[in-house]
UniProtKB/TrEMBL annotation:
Keyword terms of this UniProt record: Stress response
Highest taxon above the source species: Eukaryota
Natural source organism: Perkinsus marinus (strain ATCC 50983 / TXsc)
Limits of the Thioredoxin domain: 99-162
Keyword Iron-sulfur: no
InterPro entries per the UniProt record, alphabetical: ER_Co-chaperone (IPR052842), Thioredoxin-like_sf (IPR036249), Thioredoxin_domain (IPR013766)
This protein's name: Heat shock protein DnaJ, putative
Length: 351
């Protein structure tokens, strides 16, 4: 905010269509001009010159597009896009960000990315991040690191100071902060890598070589289902099995990599496996001769539920699994996926 003395800057006031300039600082002829961000033109405020009314008029123009609304479908993409850039998450019972969070996102737009989670609509996300009570602010410094919770006073300045402590030396584009502010840094976002943030990564065209088919050690336990994402029950069950088998195999030199595949988007893979009932599971050996193990005809009582997955993995580890060679030793091409699309105020600072 700024003030202009029209007696000393008559030309400037006239350029801004200010009429009847005051003769003194206490004159009622004072006028307020609000300058929203481009392309919205400036305008003369015609309401009461009182803090409550002026604040309400100005706050409506704070940018909202810097804050991403998060859900189960886009949270991993958000966390892994520009993976080196810290992420600030607001967990709230409201569907839109409060003015204070808008101001934070604008102030740190070069160094941080901001997301909003409505805990009423996204209870699984709240549970995933350990949020039991809203509002709450978490800051994740990098992919894979445990988020840090803000525990101080709910006011702009202390929150801004806390966020500032975590600001990276380099801003978006790789340049120093001053360079980025000057406009010489790139504004191009690094591609997202959602599989880095997923407990059970999805096999896609971009992730396949990273999560299973990179020549690394171990077999891949591939959970097959029609449509996605994984439900909370499915993910929790697979994570429990993953952790249990990882512990069992710790001293045996064996390794399992746990992933899932959406057969509704990759029907050629279901055809390759010869499977038509879902959910289901296969254990895949991606080394040298490509081959996989699935339920045999005498395993009819087993399905792709948690017990069935455990049964098949135990069978393979026990040496009883019968592997089938992939015809032609060539995997079906995975489909191209489009990137996930974008999906009354108080006078006091609040979340």
């Amino acid at each position: 905010m700024g003030a202009v003395d029209c007696d000393e800057n008559r030309a400037l006031c006239e350029q801004n269509n200010i009429k009847g300039c005051p003769k003194s600082a206490t004159s009622d002829a004072s006028q307020l001009v609000i300058y929203p961000r481009n392309p919205i033109p400036q305008f003369i405020y015609e309401g009461k010159l009182e803090a409550h009314d002026v604040k309400k008029a100005v706050l409506r123009y704070l940018p909202t597009e810097l804050i991403k609304k998060l859900d189960a479908a886009n949270v991993d993409t958000f966390l892994t896009t520009d993976a080196a850039m810290p992420k600030v998450l607001l967990f709230t019972e409201k569907d839109s960000p409060p003015p204070m969070f808008k101001a934070l996102s604008n102030e740190f737009r070069k160094e941080m990315q901001f997301g909003l989670v409505n805990v009423k609509k996204q209870p699984d996300l709240a549970k995933r991040f350990g949020v039991k009570k809203a509002p709450k602010i978490l800051l994740q410094q990098a992919v894979g690191k445990k988020p840090e919770a803000y525990k101080g006073e709910v006011s702009y300045i202390p929150i801004a100071d806390w966020v500032n402590l975590h600001r990276e030396t380099f801003s978006r584009g790789g340049g120093f902060e001053e360079t980025a502010r000057a406009g010489s840094g790139s504004e191009t976002e690094a591609p997202s890598r959602p599989w880095l943030a997923q407990e059970i990564p999805e096999i896609t065209k971009r992730s396949a070589k990273h999560v299973c088919f990179d020549g690394g050690e171990g077999h891949c336990v591939i959970y097959l289902k029609e449509g996605g994402p994984l439900s909370k029950e499915e993910e929790d069950g697979l994570v429990e099995l993953r952790d249990r088998f990882t512990s069992q195999l710790h001293n045996r030199g064996a390794k399992l990599r746990w992933v899932w595949l959406d057969v509704s988007k990759e029907p050629a893979w279901a055809e390759m496996f010869g499977i038509s009932k879902f959910p289901n599971v296969v254990v895949f050996n991606p080394h040298k001769r490509l081959r996989f193990c699935k339920f045999d005809d005498d395993d009819e009582e087993h399905t792709g539920d948690k017990d069935g997955v455990e049964y098949l993995v135990d069978k393979v580890l026990g040496g009883d699994g019968r592997f089938k060679i992939v015809k032609g030793q060539k995997l079906p091409e995975l489909s191209d996926r489009e990137e996930d699309g974008e999906k009354a105020q108080s006078d006091r600072d609040e979340l």
